[in-house]
Design a protein that fits this description.
245 residues, single chain, 11 helices, Rossmann fold
């Protein structure tokens, strides 16, 4: 477990309140690519508070969530009490071999993109099972999204990111999986001022800042939002499919 992920423990409530869900079209693509439905099983790995998990439930497959952080699991249980939740990591899920028809990882694979995690995902999947990696990426052509990036840039440090491309290198080098397509969509999140603050506060490196620095940053973020009403914040959502060899 990387030390940077401790921020997610501190910010689990902000994560649930401020993070967006996922487009219906993205979920439908995962369901179709994984052949999911009644009698099938999908594991949502690093499920967090269940932002993707709750969307998968409607397909009729058995959904099992795996999440390493206790505070995230607590928020998950509040939102999705009927979904099976396992305390495990990407490297050690605690699930049987050949357990799942599909494994999903939303907004998290860059944190544990390595051979050990891929070997565990490969073990948990049935032959020809689907690994779906999903990211919402903020559309920086929107002025508020760009301003948020400008305000937070000094604090990112060495936290793993989607943009680094390291996760792509890991997948390309692995002989355990082969590409199985990708799907792109657009998501628009409606947030009021507090929601925007929660969105930024939910980021691990922001949660780990000294309290005074964090509060100053969040006050600057709050100033980007209107006094009343909501903001419409756009995201580009991409799902990448890989088939277990």
């Amino acid at each position: 477990m990387r030390g940077e992920t401790a921020g997610f423990e501190k910010a689990s409530r902000s994560y649930e309140r401020g993070r967006p869900g996922y487009p219906r079209e993205t979920v439908d693509w995962i369901v179709a690519a994984g052949g999911l439905g009644p009698g099938r099983r999908v594991v949502d790995l690093a499920a967090g508070t269940g932002k993707l998990t709750r969307e998968l439930v409607s397909c009729g497959a058995e959904v099992v969530a795996v999440e390493p952080l206790a505070e995230m699991r607590a928020r998950f249980a509040e939102e999705l009490a009927r979904v099976r939740l396992v305390a495990g990591t990407a490297e050690e899920t605690g699930l049987p071999s050949g357990f799942a028809d599909a494994v999903t990882v939303a907004q998290a694979f860059h944190w544990f993109a390595d051979d050990e995690a891929l070997a565990e995902i490969h073990r948990v999947l049935r032959p020809s099972g689907l690994l779906a990696l999903v990211w919402n990426r903020r559309d920086l052509s929107h002025p508020v999204q760009e301003a948020v990036s400008r305000l937070t840039a000094p604090y990112v440090g060495e936290a793993p990111t989607y943009a680094s491309g390291h996760w792509r290198e890991v997948m390309a080098a692995s002989d355990l999986f082969e590409p199985a397509g990708e799907h792109r969509s657009v998501l628009v999140q409606q947030l009021d001022r507090q929601g925007l603050v929660d969105r930024v506060a939910s980021t691990s490196y922001v949660a780990n800042l000294p309290e005074g620095t964090r509060q100053d940053l969040l006050e600057s973020v709050a100033a980007l939002a209107p006094d009343s009403g909501t903001l419409s914040l756009p995201y580009d959502t991409t799902a990448y499919g890989f088939r277990r060899r």
